[in-house]
Amino acid sequence: DTGVSQDPRHKITKRGQNVTFRCDPISEHNRLYWYRQTLGQGPEFLTYFQNEAQLEKSRLLSDRFSAERPKGSFSTLEIQRTEQGDSAMYLCASSASSVYLQFFGPGTRLTVL
Amino acid sequence: TQLLEQSPQFLSIQEGENLTVYCNSSSVFSSLQWYRQEPGEGPVLLVTVVTGGEVKKLKRLTFQFGDARKDSSLHITAAQPGDTGLYLCASQGPGNNRKLIWGLGTSLAVNP
Q1: What is the Cα–Cα distance from B6 to B73, expressed in whole angstroms?
Q2: Residue pLDDT tens, chain B, 112 long
Q3: Distance CA A47, CA A34 (A)
Q4: How far apart are CA B19 and CA B79, in angstroms?
Q5: CB of A102 within 8 Å of any CB in chain B?
Q6: Which chain A residues touch B101 with a CB distance below 8 Å?
Q7: Rounded distance, CA A90 to CA A43, Å?
């Protein structure tokens, strides 16, 4: 399967714990996006990488959130000191520079108890 | 700020019926994508429309882009239970990052 993959698919954690999610984009795609989606809403943009450079961060991304893409391939999204309001589906998408279409992974559903 | 409005927000119909969902904006779209999302999964791209007045068909789904590129519609003919899902429209925001701006979606339930 050469699509976008995300791991884990589901994460249940207690408030205050740290969590880390991984995204593996389509191999030739140099753009990588993170979005967050809560129930009944469309996805909301969190951050964007072109290769290893993080070029934009949404105001939604508080100081507790950090994202990396160290070698311009896979990316990680870490949430420190999780809060119940962080419960959501975290989606990763990738695209090539030459086209504007974004392809999404299956998402990681986070539940903070 | 470009906003996408989708209607209706919820739709519950019987198998075999036809339906149309809408996506509107006060701004001109450079392009518009329609996605379908099932519970617990990521959005899956259905179609992209770029040219004003464009019509694209995908089996029983017909997508139309308004002449002024400010609105789009998705029409499903003879809906089936497998069509159940969340239908989302999205468009590229301003700037070079090409981040997607999304509507809230239309949640469709097709009952057998």
Answers
A1: 9
A2: 557 999 999 999 999 999 999 999 988 888 899 999 998 899 999 999 989 999 999 999 999 999 999 999 999 999 999 999 999 999 987 777 778 889 999 999 999 9
A3: 5
A4: 8
A5: yes
A6: 45
A7: 9
Q: Is A103 on the interface with B (CB under 8 A)?
A: yes
pLDDT at A5 > cutoff 90: yes
Residues of chain B neighbouring A61 (CB-CB closer than 8 A): none
Closest partner residue to A55 (CB to CB) among B35, B42, B97 is B97
Burial class (CB in 10 A: 0-12, 13-18, 19+), B33: buried
> What pLDDT score does A1 carry?
54
Instruction: For chain B, say whether A74 makes contact (Cβ under 8 Å).
Output: no
Nearest chain B alpha carbon to A6: B42
Tokens of A37: 């989606």
